[in-house]
Structures are given as C-alpha cells and as structure tokens.
Amino acid sequence: MSRVKALLARASAAQKATPSTGSLLERGKLIAMLGAKGGLGVTTLALNTAVAMAQTGNDVILCELRPGQGSLGLQLGFSASKALGNLLGRPAAEISSHLIEGQLVSHGSGVRLLLASCEPHEMTMEAHAAQAEQWVKQLSTMTKFLILDLGPGLTEINKKVLPLCDRHLMVVEPMRVTLIMAKAILDEMEKMGISANRFEMIMLNRVRSSLQMPWQQAEAILNHSIASIVTPAPELSYQAAEAAVPMIQMQPESLTADQSRKLAEMLTQKGKSAGKV
Ligand SMILES: Nc1ncnc2c1ncn2[C@@H]1O[C@H](COP(=O)(O)OP(=O)(O)OP(=O)(O)O)[C@@H](O)[C@H]1O
Ligand SMILES: [Mg+2]
C-alpha cells in the first residue's frame, strides 16, 4: 500500500509540474505547410512527407488545421472526425495534454493524425485562433516532428501559428496567377516580421503539359528560389485516394514516393537545407 501511495504521490507531483501551455517542455520541430491558394496538393504532400518521415523511424504528428474543411481523414478512409472542432471549441484553459492525446488517431504508417471535419458550420471556428496557438504549442511537445497542414492563405489561425514554426514550406504551381498570389503572401509575412527567406517554396505540378513555365521564370515572379519540385502523378494520386492509401505506400518505387522521401530527409536534417531536392 505504501509503495502504491508513493507512486501516486509522485505521479500527481509530476502532473502539477506540467504547465498547461507546455511552454517549459521540450518542443518538437514545427513544420508549416501552406498553400499559395486552395487545391494545390498541400494535404497530399503533407501526408506523404509525414509517412516518409515515419518510415525512417521518426515520431510524427500531422495536424490538419482547417476547421470545417478537412479532407485528410477522408483521403485515408477514417470516419468523420471531430478532433479539431473539439479542441477549437473549448476555452484554452480547459485544454489539457490528456484531452489533446484523446483527439489523435494512429495511421498504419505510424503517423499520428489530428483530423478536421468537413462540416461547413465548423468553418466559423477559424475565429478561435488564440486557442489554436495555445494547444498547437502543447501538441508540439508530444512529438519530435509536428507537421501543420495550414491549407491556403493567411487565415487568422495561420497568422497565429506561423510565427511558432521552425520550418515554413509554401506550395505553389507553375502558373503566373498562383505565383503572384504566393508573392503577395511572402510580402505580407515580411510585414508580420517573418522574413520571406525563411520560406522554402515547393513547386508542385499536378498536370502534365507541354506548356510548362520554366522554374527560373517562376523564381523570377516569386523573387525567391524554389527548394523542391514535385512532378505530376495524376493516376497515382487518383488510385491512392480511391484506395485510401498514401501514394508513398501505394507505389513505394514511384518518382513521387522518391520525392516525398527526399523532402522528408530535407526536413529531418538538422538546420535548413541549402540545395534543391
Ligand atoms: N503530384 C500530384 N500530381 C497530380 N495530382 C496530385 C498530386 N498531388 C496531389 N494531387 C491531387 O490534387 C488534388 C488536390 O490535392 P489536395 O487535397 O492534397 O490539395 P490541398 O491543397 O490540400 O487542397 P485544399 O486547399 O482543398 O485543402 C487531389 O485530387 C490530389 O489527388
Ligand atoms: Mg487540403
């Protein structure tokens, strides 16, 4: 009995020592993945990169920070998830590590997921950006790598969490309109005190076309270098979505899988990458 009492006392003391914001705990690397606009392939890229990271033994959480616009769970065949809504719908003071843990689901690859629903009424939770900032900090203490699928543009939530991140990836496509939109985001980030130099631009081509803008021209429009290029894989992405399996697991030998592994390597290396992948 006395041994049990001593153990309980120790556990309760440890719990009291854990701050609710997690600010004194060691945080994992926070990786932001942002789209210059919607539908560019951010979720697909975030998922495949996360799986590639897990395949080399890394502890990874992927969080889809898109209230009411989630598609990650659907892509993987999970039933409707209220996880993000459950966290954004509560005052920050009520959010404990235990509550956050309870919202995570595990994928067969080893990646843990915090999923968003696709219920349109939850889109108004975008206004709860201050809560998001608090629990994202806590979530980052629960893993070595936390990937945030931020979706497109500078939403209120994105403005709060981007300054917390260690790596900033922005997905663009080789289209003038998209590149001008990306440049506008970079300029706005500069005004917020986040240097455009901190962004690593990922050029994701979803369509095969003989009319492709050369990456040098894209770099000139962005006034920024491109860190990585993802080639089109329309058939594989369709098959993977239908089978609810990440592309990297569906065809591990494909060029797309290779590109996900290279990006994962770039993100798990210490410091910032210098070259292209
Ligand atoms: N490399 C690729 N080649 C071809 N199609 C792709 C590629 N990557 C993703 N796609 C396809 O592009 C579409 C959009 O992908 P995804 O949902 O990942 O984009 P998103 O940027 O997260 O969109 P949203 O803004 O709605 O969140 C999907 O149909 C997906 O299968
Ligand atoms: Mg998405």
Task: Throw out a few tags for this protein.
binds adenosine-5'-triphosphate; Rossmann fold; 15% strand
Overview of the molecule:
- By secondary structure, the chain is an alpha/beta fold.
- It has one domain (19-267): P-loop containing nucleotide triphosphate hydrolases (Rossmann fold), CATH 3.40.50.300.
- Helix content is 42%, strand content 15%.
- The chain is built from twelve helices and eight strands.
- Strands 3-4-2-5-1-6-7-8 form an eight-stranded mixed beta sheet, sandwiched between helices.
- Helix 2 crosses helix 12 (255-268).
- It is globular, with a radius of gyration of 19 Å.
- The model is unreliable at 16-23 and 272-277 (pLDDT under 50).
- The chain binds adenosine-5'-triphosphate (ATP) and magnesium ion.
- Adenosine-5'-triphosphate is lined by residues 35, 38-44, 71, 151-152, 204, 206, 230, 232-234, 237, 241, 256.
- Magnesium ion binds next to helix 2 and strand 5.
Q: Topology of this protein?
A:
Blueprint: H1 2-17, E1 29-35, H2 42-55, E2 60-64, H3 72-75, H4 83-88, H5 97-103, E3 105-106, E4 112-114, H6 129-140, E5 145-152, H7 156-161, E6 167-172, H8 176-191, E7 199-204, H9 215-222, E8 226-230, H10 234-243, H11 247-250, H12 255-268
Parallel strand pairs: 1-5, 1-6, 2-4, 2-5, 6-7, 7-8
Antiparallel strand pairs: 3-4
The structure holds adenosine-5'-triphosphate and magnesium ion.
Q: Could you describe the largest sheet, including whether it forms a barrel?
A: 8 strands, mixed
Shape: globular
Q: In terms of per-residue confidence, which ranges show pLDDT below 50 for 5 or more consecutive residues?
A: 16-23, 272-277
How many H/I helical runs? 12
* Order of neighbouring strands in the sheet with most strands: 3-4-2-5-1-6-7-8
In terms of DSSP E residues, the strand content is 15-25%
- Spell out the CATH superfamily: P-loop containing nucleotide triphosphate hydrolases
> Level of helix content?
40-55%
Structural class: alpha/beta
Task: Give the termini separation.
Answer: 59 Å
For the record, the CATH class is Alpha Beta
Count the beta strands.
8
Cα-atom Rg, whole angstroms? Answer: 19 Å
What binds here, in terms of ligands, is: adenosine-5'-triphosphate, magnesium ion
Average pLDDT, rounded to a whole number, is 91
